[in-house]
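Quick start: what a row looks like.
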Amino acid sequence: MNKKKILVINGPNLNLLGLREPSIYGRKTYTELEDYVNQCAHALGLDAVLFQSNHEGVIVDRIQAALGEVDGIVINPAAYTHTSIAILDALKAVGLPAVEVHLSDPEQREPFRRVSYTALACERRFVGCGFEGYRLALEYLNERLSGRKA
C-alpha cells in the first residue's frame, strides 16, 4: 500500500517565522515548522511535500502541478487568503481535498483578514492553533483519504 502524499503549502512571509510579529506568530522558526510537519506526517504514515513561496503565481503553479502527484493539500495561504481568487481557482481546478490552516485566528484580527477566498475550496479550516493546526489538518486528510469518517 502506497503512502498518501500531502502537499503542504505556506504562503508569503511564513519563511520569516520567529522574526515576524512574534507576539502573533510565536518565536518558532519556519525550519521548526517544517520539522514539526514532517514529524506529524511520519507519525500518521503520510509523506509530506513542503513548499513555501512569497509569490502568488508560483503558488498557483505549484497547486496545478499537484494534480496527479499528491492526494491532498494543506494550505496556509497567509495574506493571499484575503486577496487571491487565483489561488482559490487553482484549488477548485485540481479538485484535491484541501484544508486551510492559519497559525493565528484571522477572525480575531483586523477586519480585512476575516474574508477567506481560499476557504471556499477547502473542506476544513484550522485557525488559531499555531503549529498544531497543521497536525489537525494532516489528521483530517489522513482520515478522509483512508475512507474513515473525518
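That is the whole record. The chain has one domain: 4-145. The CA atoms of residues 46 and 141 lie 10 Å apart.
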